[in-house]
Amino acid sequence: MFPIPNEVGRRIEVSMIGKNQLTIPIAQNLTSQLYDVSLYYRKDLSDSRKLSDDITMIEIADYEEDLLKRLGLFERDIVVCSTNDDHINKSVALMAKKHGVKRVICRLESTNEDPTLKHQGIEVFSNYLSNKILLKSLIETPNMLNLLSNVETSLYEIQMLNYQYENIQLRNFPFGGDIIFVRIIRDNDSIVPHGDTQLRYKDRLIVTGTKEYVDELKQELEFYY
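== CPA2 family monovalent cation:proton (H+) antiporter-2 ==
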């Protein structure tokens, strides 16, 4: 028997470093019942556009470690370092990892690889690399790109961390939302699901469906602790 923890309506806490033409639309689009978004920025380096009231705006004098710690940055689930300065991004990303942030994403425009960040498990991206992948996908697989970019038909990944659903068959899965299970990633295996497929703890579920139902399912399965 597995212990069943008390369910809480938990939200994923995401903090973004920098207020610019990249972080502003991402922060706006992330805001939902699933994500609690905050944005840390220096006024002298920031875009002046006003954001949604649902986004917590934190203006700071500089990206100093003690200040960021006092303001709770290192207590967030995900920290995205995306100012227009690679040095600031790398510095804050390493601070976040040092303080135990589970997922840290760092924007680097000068290089696509950084051994120090990679060694720390920090995910790296750049506008150049993202645009290159996007254009290649648009040329080679336009229908797949449309699927991924359509909010109502996108693919999402959900990790199964709720012991209540351990060993349950998909045909008996009680969630009534508009969800289709596309794949189940279990260890190194990719499983095509069917009605008799049983869920296992730590399965990674690739699903498609409306954003509202996906958010509900993610809260039920992934943040049940």
